[in-house]
Design goal:
- Two copies of one chain form a homodimer.
- Chain A is mainly alpha-helical.
- Chain A has a single domain, classed as Farnesyl Diphosphate Synthase, CATH 1.10.600.
- Chain A is built from 15 helices and two strands.
- A two-stranded antiparallel ribbon of chain A has the order 1-2.
- In chain A, α9 runs antiparallel to α14 and α11 packs across α13.
- The longest helix of chain A is centred in the middle third of the chain and has 28 residues.
- Chains A, B: InterPro entries: Isoprenoid_synthase_dom_sf (IPR008949), Polyprenyl_synt (IPR000092), Polyprenyl_synt_CS (IPR033749).
- Chains A, B: Keywords: Magnesium, Metal-binding, Transferase.
- Chains A, B: One of its GO terms (biological process) is isoprenoid biosynthetic process.
Chain lengths: 326, 326
């Protein structure tokens, strides 16, 4: 399934996403054409472009819709996301992303670090070129801060016993939900929505992001049929203890704790036993319930937003995301 | 010599630099206090703070001087510089910077990558909080782009035969001179200087940065008495061929080329022979001449800027920089 096929029922949205891709490509201008081509190869190999989708749809909320602006902002948010992915891939030493070799594999870590930094600067270049609201830019910069605080916190807590659900939620709220929140906020703000509706858009995005990350963490434990290349329990192997495991630990602290105290890297046997324990203790089911609660909160917040065609599309997407048919 | 001692004759400037340091520190706010302390340890161990010095002094150019703003911008520029240093240290795998262990040594590469990203976002947070000119923000973002294009270009051209002086100048113009240029431009713009004077301030900063980097590259060949920890010819060992070597190659392409074609990493003997060749062919002297030319251009541009006390201080600093008593 190509990127655009998942949005098959929405021609206008697909056109906009193509324009977003084009805008990103146009902003990557490097005299050394080899470097330029290398970076464009990564940015053209995008995913579902969920963050641009939310920014594009929420930009139809108010009455100041401006297609060019809306596309520029969506492009800035996707560029920011891509920059973090390039650095994440260096950090995880991932060999491929979406079937193509990662930048640090094709070139090296150093190259990938600078390329990520370059995309960060393009993001702020785009934002400052198109926005009229400095407040919005500040929102974006602070949002990026929160993403990185979440990532640093996750690194720091690797291989330490799973703490509370609260600390997990705080971490994913930074690491993942922030960018969804700010995507919706950006769309709403640029469209001239009221302050209350901007805040609602922000909250909706945050709930979507929370549900999205929890589901991602569930798929890491259960295995994702669509993502055959990824080994099951990849996060836990790296010492990242996510919600299903935390719930499981709360149920059986001694049994789970004993396994987590084993020597790292964990053996396949330990991973297998951990997976069995998570199943037995209902860790996945409890996590699914929390994801459903966030989805419900997102839909509830959406229902309060100003009427418009965008709402039906958003409702559809949010529901699909929970069921992960998207 | 501590950081502030070099500015000993200028109490007002030292006060401002202390305020810059304090501002940066205040912006680093992370719930996990251990992470916060680690990052602050790096940012508090700053160098001469040359970029803030230029931003602070040029902010006295126009008639809208505002101390708080001027300090905030200087802090943003220093934070941007620090972010690039943290990533540079990961890339060069440098063990220490200014006598303290680098972040990736204390923690690990991953941590240092995210910490650098975090400082980038703080920089844009500061800029968007204080500026009233979106144009200025765009300038900063584009300047950061150029820095990274310069770094990528340098990485890409490692261990390839030294090309033209022109391509060297284009690389350092991005990698180093941009941040000096934008520091001067930022000060001038915020002070309400005329468009012509802003452009002059930008050019002056660029010339200063060019001279600064050429001198840095000369010291890499000659050895810097003040920087005892750094091995001589560190750049060339890493495949970064700078101006003295390029000049030398132009004089003796066969001899220099033969040495550069040897197996890498270069042996101490090869490095020794290269150094001798650079001396014989006058590579250092030719580079010094070009640095002096840029310094002269900087001073010449400075002389055309509006009168004020800041000019004498700038003149003093620019002259000291060339002689590297600074």
């Amino acid at each position: 399934m190509t990127t655009y096929q998942i949005w098959q029922n929405n021609e206008a949205l697909i056109d906009d996403l193509r324009a977003v891709e084009e805008t990103i490509s146009q902003h990557i201008r490097i005299k050394n054409k080899q470097i330029e081509a290398q970076i464009k190869k990564v940015t053209n190999n995008h995913g579902k472009m969920l963050r641009p989708v939310f920014a594009l749809l929420t930009s139809q909320m108010g009455n100041q819709y401006d297609r060019d602006k809306s596309i520029a902002f969506a492009a800035a948010l996707e560029t920011l996301h891509m920059a973090t992915l390039i650095h994440d891939d260096v950090i995880d030493q991932a060999d491929t992303r979406r079937q193509i070799p990662t930048l640090h594999t094709v070139k090296d870590n150093r190259y990938a670090i600078y390329a990520g930094d370059y995309l960060f600067s393009i993001c702020f270049n785009m934002l400052s070129q198109y926005t009229e609201e400095l407040n919005l830019l500040n929102y974006n910069a602070r949002s990026m801060e929160k993403v990185l605080i979440g990532e640093l916190d996750q690194l720091e807590s690797r291989f330490t016993p799973p703490k509370s659900v609260k600390s997990y939620l705080s971490r994913i709220s930074g690491k993942t939900a922030q960018l969804f929140a700010v995507s919706c906020y950006t769309g709403a703000t640029e469209s001239g929505a009221s302050l209350r509706d901007r805040q609602r858009a922000y909250n909706m995005g945050k709930y979507i992001g929370m549900a999205f990350q929890i589901i991602d963490d569930i798929l890491d434990v259960k295995g994702d049929a669509k993502d055959v290349g990824k080994p099951v329990m990849a996060d836990i192997r790296q010492g990242i203890y996510t919600l299903p495991l935390i719930y499981s630990y709360q149920q059986q602290p001694e049994k789970v704790g004993a396994l987590l105290n084993k020597e790292t890297p964990f053996s396949d046997e330990t991973i297998h036993e951990l997976k069995a324990l998570i199943d037995q203790t209902g860790g996945v089911i409890a996590a699914q319930k929390l994801a459903a609660r966030y989805t419900k909160k997102a839909l509830n917040t959406l229902s309060k937003l100003p009427e418009g065609d965008y709402k039906a599309t958003l409702k559809h997407i949010i529901t699909d995301m929970l069921e992960r048919t998207l």
